[in-house]
Amino acid sequence: IQACATTGQRDYKSSDKQDFLAKNVHTGNGRKKSDGIETRGALRGAKRDDLQSTSEYHFTMAQAYVVDGDTDRAIEEYNLALIYDPKSALIYARISAEYVKKGMLSAAMDAAKNALQYDPNYIDARIILAGLYSATRETLEALKQYDAVMKIDPVNVEAAIYKVQVLIETGASL
User: One digit per residue, pLDDT tens: the chain, 174 residues?
Assistant: First the structure.
């Protein structure tokens, strides 16, 4: 009570505590109820539209945090979006880009690979992955990714420029 008084925090009444316990009790079978919804298996019963809407909400929040420069919060929101849309190549690619900003290259690489697992023709994810391979001096892998982009989109100038840059840096012939 003293800590609450000195920090300005609210002193919770016993009725507040009872409300909290009523909403967050264990059912006895290993499942926890939170706000009246069982957390295990709750997503199975949800409608596809609800899942999509929730994913889009978290994606939008992540985008707002990206604009604000709050990389950590953006990653949190992207991960929440993935809970509701776990096969979204776009979300994985965006997470990858945020990990790059934080210098977390291994996590960025894993996220880009996940994006390509769900959409092998996703050019942005391939370019991110190629750039990561180039940054980690895995030149052959980088070149493979740039070649894959140019196979998908033969007029992709970005991939062509980056490929030439990798070749120049390694001293390989054009």
Answer: 223 333 333 333 434 434 433 443 333 334 333 333 344 454 555 566 787 889 999 999 999 999 999 999 999 999 999 999 999 999 999 999 999 999 999 999 999 999 999 999 999 999 999 999 999 999 999 999 999 999 999 999 999 999 999 999 988 655
The dihedral of CA 159, 160, 161, 162: what is its sign?
positive
| Token pair belonging to 41 | 């298996």
Number of CB atoms found within 10 A of residue 58's CB = 21
Query: Nearest 5°: phi and psi at 86?
Result: -70, -5
Cα–Cα distance measured from residue 149 to residue 158, given in angstroms and rounded to the nearest whole number: 9
Please check whether residue 99 is in contact with residue 111, taking contact to mean a CB–CB distance below 8 angstroms.
Answer: yes
Task: For residue 34, give every residue at least 6 positions away whose Cβ sits within 8 Å of its Cβ, in sequence order, or none.
Answer: 23, 24
Measuring CA to CA, which residue among 88, 89, 79 is closest to residue 52?
88
**pTM (predicted TM-score):** 0.70
Burial class of 86 by CB neighbour count within 10 A (0 to 12, 13 to 18, 19+)? middle
Place of tokens 């919804």: 37
Cβ neighbours of 13 (radius 10 Å): 9
